[in-house]
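To: structure desk
From: M.T.
Subject: fold request, one chain
Message: Could you run this one when you get a chance? Sequence is below, nothing fancy, just the single chain.
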Amino acid sequence: MGRRSQAQAQQNRERVVDTASRLFREQGTEVSVADLMKAAGLTHGGFYKQFASKEALIGEATAHAFDENARLRATALERHAGDHDAAQRAFIDAYLSTGHRDNAGDGCPVAGLAVDIARGHGDTEARRVFTEQVGDTAAWLATADQDGIARLCTMIGALVLARATAGSPLSEDILAAARAVLADTGNQFAP
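Reply: Done. C-alpha coordinates follow.
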Protein backbone atom coordinates (compact mmCIF):
# COMPACT_ATOMS: atom_id res chain seq x y z
CA MET A 1 0.00 0.00 0.00
CA GLY A 2 1.40 3.42 -0.97
CA ARG A 3 1.95 6.28 1.46
CA ARG A 4 -1.11 8.12 0.21
CA SER A 5 -3.26 5.02 0.70
CA GLN A 6 -1.82 4.41 4.16
CA ALA A 7 -2.38 8.04 5.12
CA GLN A 8 -5.96 7.88 3.83
CA ALA A 9 -6.57 4.64 5.71
CA GLN A 10 -5.30 6.28 8.92
CA GLN A 11 -7.52 9.32 8.36
CA ASN A 12 -10.51 7.05 7.78
CA ARG A 13 -9.75 5.11 10.95
CA GLU A 14 -9.52 8.33 12.98
CA ARG A 15 -12.80 9.53 11.47
CA VAL A 16 -14.53 6.28 12.48
CA VAL A 17 -13.15 6.45 16.04
CA ASP A 18 -14.19 10.09 16.38
CA THR A 19 -17.66 9.39 14.97
CA ALA A 20 -18.08 6.32 17.17
CA SER A 21 -17.01 8.26 20.25
CA ARG A 22 -19.71 10.84 19.59
CA LEU A 23 -22.46 8.40 18.57
CA PHE A 24 -21.80 6.00 21.45
CA ARG A 25 -22.08 8.83 24.00
CA GLU A 26 -25.22 10.09 22.30
CA GLN A 27 -27.04 6.85 21.43
CA GLY A 28 -25.22 4.05 23.24
CA THR A 29 -23.00 1.32 21.86
CA GLU A 30 -25.89 -0.48 20.19
CA VAL A 31 -25.44 1.78 17.15
CA SER A 32 -25.05 -0.57 14.20
CA VAL A 33 -21.78 -0.77 12.29
CA ALA A 34 -23.69 0.19 9.13
CA ASP A 35 -25.13 3.33 10.76
CA LEU A 36 -21.78 4.22 12.27
CA MET A 37 -19.94 3.92 8.96
CA LYS A 38 -22.65 5.90 7.19
CA ALA A 39 -22.32 8.68 9.78
CA ALA A 40 -18.55 8.65 9.19
CA GLY A 41 -19.14 8.93 5.44
CA LEU A 42 -17.59 5.55 4.70
CA THR A 43 -18.83 2.20 3.42
CA HIS A 44 -19.86 -0.59 5.76
CA GLY A 45 -17.40 -2.99 4.12
CA GLY A 46 -14.41 -0.89 5.16
CA PHE A 47 -15.06 -1.38 8.86
CA TYR A 48 -13.37 -4.77 9.23
CA LYS A 49 -10.31 -3.59 7.30
CA GLN A 50 -9.77 -1.10 10.11
CA PHE A 51 -11.05 -2.87 13.25
CA ALA A 52 -10.94 -6.44 14.53
CA SER A 53 -14.45 -6.10 15.97
CA LYS A 54 -17.03 -3.60 17.12
CA GLU A 55 -15.95 -4.35 20.70
CA ALA A 56 -12.41 -3.23 19.85
CA LEU A 57 -13.80 -0.01 18.38
CA ILE A 58 -15.77 0.60 21.57
CA GLY A 59 -12.47 0.44 23.48
CA GLU A 60 -10.80 2.94 21.14
CA ALA A 61 -13.83 5.24 21.10
CA THR A 62 -13.96 5.17 24.91
CA ALA A 63 -10.29 6.14 25.14
CA HIS A 64 -10.85 8.89 22.57
CA ALA A 65 -13.78 10.33 24.55
CA PHE A 66 -11.74 10.38 27.75
CA ASP A 67 -8.83 12.06 25.93
CA GLU A 68 -11.24 14.86 24.99
CA ASN A 69 -12.40 15.08 28.60
CA ALA A 70 -8.81 15.32 29.88
CA ARG A 71 -8.10 18.12 27.40
CA LEU A 72 -11.10 20.05 28.77
CA ARG A 73 -9.73 19.76 32.31
CA ALA A 74 -6.27 20.85 31.15
CA THR A 75 -7.75 23.80 29.27
CA ALA A 76 -9.70 24.86 32.38
CA LEU A 77 -6.47 24.74 34.40
CA GLU A 78 -4.61 26.79 31.78
CA ARG A 79 -7.38 29.41 31.65
CA HIS A 80 -7.15 29.85 35.38
CA ALA A 81 -3.35 30.25 35.47
CA GLY A 82 -2.77 27.00 37.31
CA ASP A 83 -5.37 27.73 40.02
CA HIS A 84 -6.74 24.20 40.48
CA ASP A 85 -9.72 25.32 42.59
CA ALA A 86 -10.82 27.89 40.00
CA ALA A 87 -10.33 25.33 37.21
CA GLN A 88 -12.47 22.82 39.11
CA ARG A 89 -15.24 25.38 39.58
CA ALA A 90 -15.16 26.27 35.86
CA PHE A 91 -15.19 22.60 34.88
CA ILE A 92 -18.11 21.85 37.22
CA ASP A 93 -20.09 24.85 35.98
CA ALA A 94 -19.57 23.79 32.36
CA TYR A 95 -20.38 20.17 33.19
CA LEU A 96 -23.62 21.08 34.96
CA SER A 97 -24.79 23.44 32.21
CA THR A 98 -27.75 23.18 29.89
CA GLY A 99 -25.32 23.18 26.96
CA HIS A 100 -23.63 20.02 28.22
CA ARG A 101 -27.00 18.48 29.08
CA ASP A 102 -28.24 19.08 25.55
CA ASN A 103 -25.11 17.86 23.71
CA ALA A 104 -24.51 14.30 24.88
CA GLY A 105 -22.47 13.38 21.80
CA ASP A 106 -19.76 15.86 22.73
CA GLY A 107 -20.20 15.37 26.44
CA CYS A 108 -18.98 13.33 29.34
CA PRO A 109 -17.96 9.78 28.48
CA VAL A 110 -18.85 8.59 31.98
CA ALA A 111 -22.46 9.76 31.74
CA GLY A 112 -22.70 8.62 28.13
CA LEU A 113 -21.07 5.19 28.39
CA ALA A 114 -21.48 3.95 31.97
CA VAL A 115 -24.54 1.80 31.34
CA ASP A 116 -23.04 0.19 28.23
CA ILE A 117 -19.72 -0.52 29.94
CA ALA A 118 -21.57 -1.96 32.96
CA ARG A 119 -23.51 -4.26 30.61
CA GLY A 120 -20.27 -5.60 29.17
CA HIS A 121 -20.36 -3.80 25.83
CA GLY A 122 -16.88 -3.36 24.50
CA ASP A 123 -13.75 -5.31 25.20
CA THR A 124 -11.73 -5.51 28.39
CA GLU A 125 -9.74 -2.50 27.18
CA ALA A 126 -12.92 -0.39 27.22
CA ARG A 127 -13.60 -1.31 30.85
CA ARG A 128 -9.95 -0.77 31.83
CA VAL A 129 -9.86 2.69 30.22
CA PHE A 130 -13.23 3.58 31.72
CA THR A 131 -12.19 2.51 35.23
CA GLU A 132 -8.83 4.26 35.06
CA GLN A 133 -10.32 7.50 33.77
CA VAL A 134 -13.13 7.57 36.33
CA GLY A 135 -10.45 7.28 39.02
CA ASP A 136 -8.32 10.00 37.42
CA THR A 137 -11.28 12.36 37.08
CA ALA A 138 -12.33 11.77 40.70
CA ALA A 139 -8.77 12.45 41.86
CA TRP A 140 -8.71 15.69 39.85
CA LEU A 141 -12.02 16.78 41.45
CA ALA A 142 -10.94 16.12 45.05
CA THR A 143 -10.47 19.08 47.37
CA ALA A 144 -9.37 19.40 50.97
CA ASP A 145 -13.06 19.51 51.95
CA GLN A 146 -14.75 17.29 49.37
CA ASP A 147 -14.11 13.75 48.22
CA GLY A 148 -13.55 13.55 44.47
CA ILE A 149 -15.56 10.34 44.04
CA ALA A 150 -18.60 11.90 45.73
CA ARG A 151 -18.21 15.06 43.64
CA LEU A 152 -17.99 13.03 40.42
CA CYS A 153 -21.00 10.91 41.38
CA THR A 154 -23.00 14.06 42.14
CA MET A 155 -22.08 15.56 38.77
CA ILE A 156 -22.82 12.43 36.75
CA GLY A 157 -26.07 11.69 38.57
CA ALA A 158 -27.25 15.26 38.13
CA LEU A 159 -26.37 15.28 34.44
CA VAL A 160 -28.13 11.98 33.76
CA LEU A 161 -31.25 13.09 35.65
CA ALA A 162 -31.22 16.50 33.94
CA ARG A 163 -31.03 14.79 30.53
CA ALA A 164 -33.88 12.45 31.44
CA THR A 165 -36.08 15.38 32.55
CA ALA A 166 -35.01 17.84 29.81
CA GLY A 167 -37.84 20.11 28.72
CA SER A 168 -39.21 20.45 32.24
CA PRO A 169 -38.30 23.00 34.91
CA LEU A 170 -37.06 20.11 37.05
CA SER A 171 -34.13 19.57 34.67
CA GLU A 172 -32.65 23.00 35.31
CA ASP A 173 -33.43 22.71 39.03
CA ILE A 174 -31.37 19.50 39.16
CA LEU A 175 -28.37 21.18 37.52
CA ALA A 176 -28.62 24.22 39.80
CA ALA A 177 -28.94 22.09 42.94
CA ALA A 178 -25.87 20.04 42.06
CA ARG A 179 -23.84 23.19 41.29
CA ALA A 180 -24.87 24.62 44.69
CA VAL A 181 -23.92 21.46 46.58
CA LEU A 182 -20.55 21.24 44.83
CA ALA A 183 -19.81 24.93 45.45
CA ASP A 184 -20.36 24.42 49.19
CA THR A 185 -16.97 23.98 50.82
CA GLY A 186 -18.48 22.21 53.79
CA ASN A 187 -17.38 18.74 54.72
CA GLN A 188 -20.53 16.84 53.68
CA PHE A 189 -18.57 14.58 51.29
CA ALA A 190 -15.71 13.66 53.55
CA PRO A 191 -15.16 9.91 53.82
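Reply (cont.): The radius of gyration is 18 Å. Let me know if you need anything else for the meeting.
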